[in-house]
Amino acid sequence: MKILCVCQYYYPENFQVTPICEQLVADGYEVTVLTGLPNYPTGIIPDDYKKSNRDETINGVHVVRCKEIGRKNGPVWLGINYISFYISSMKMVDKLPADFDIVFVYQLSPVFMGLPGRKYAMKHNVPLFLYCCDLWPESIKMYVKNERNVFYKWARYVSRKVYVSCNRIAVQSLSFINYLNITHSIDKNKLIYIPAFADEKYLTIDFTPEDKNFIDFLFLGNIGIAQNLFSVVNAFKIACEKRSMRLHIVGDGTCLQDLQHYVVEVGLKDTVFFYGRRSVDQMPRFYKIADACIVSLNADNATGYTLPSKVQGYMAAGKPIIGMIDGSAREVIKESNCGICVPANDVDGFANALCSFARDKCFHEMYANNGRSYFKKNFSKKGFMNALEKEISSLGNNA
Q: What terms describe the molecular function in GO for this protein (predicted)?
């Protein structure tokens, strides 16, 4: 079976769409990816991709790259980046072979990346299968609060256009199902929950930190508005006055510089440490430092109900999770009993959770073991691929 995968992001950008496509090839599918030029999260396109490497094969996956303007910094450049990929990908679709059996859209932000997939599917009368990682237009509420805003209305129209066109939509968070059903009138029979997976190599590695007279907390990932790290720092400041602890932040994003300045401003430069963006190969070093890992998301809109993929990674590494988050992530943390979770934006509650974890060391090992056990049952790559391929085969064979 020949699969056309559409996603604005692909290797060397670090998204799960890459291992998914490579596993599909390993399992006997022919996969072509229509993507853009790598520039996430730095916003800068590497020299190697500015004028070359527009058509390449990576680990058996045929990768076709469209022209794209780097996202740089700020919402204006981000909008330009989104539009540039949309325009070039819509043109590129017409140049692709007509023999794909199914279109698979790995939908992150923006939802516009689904439009070239929709165009190909309609033109060649093949099924359209979408894996939804980000809810739209909900995701733009970080920048556009008013639903009466012209841009928001347009984004809602485009989002519905993409979602309604799909033969099947898989969602990475269970709470997405109600949103898509209510907001876009998507029949629940078209929706299926397939949670994301994480690297299983961490399951067998001992990341137990060395004994010390303080507690180390770790945050990994994107540092943007949605991650609500200013509230995390505010809670950490309160907790620091009661317990000896440190906070390590590994990642990059639009709020990094502002967050660094804020940490200095509130007098935490000696207890909050920034490491910038690091490669996946360097993650074990940070997991070894951490007594627990942090996950947080804003509660301003439905994107706060996302299950961030870092949750699965933390579990696989055997790290207790301290969360300030709602939705699927909160449910998973509570159901698995792998840590402590308070509602999103509850700064005082999160400060108490940090202190509670630092005080009750007898629970650390239990949280770690519970997380790994839950991961094995629910978030393995094998389970994910089996569910995904079942949907792809069913749609492709019934076309």
A: glycosyltransferase activity
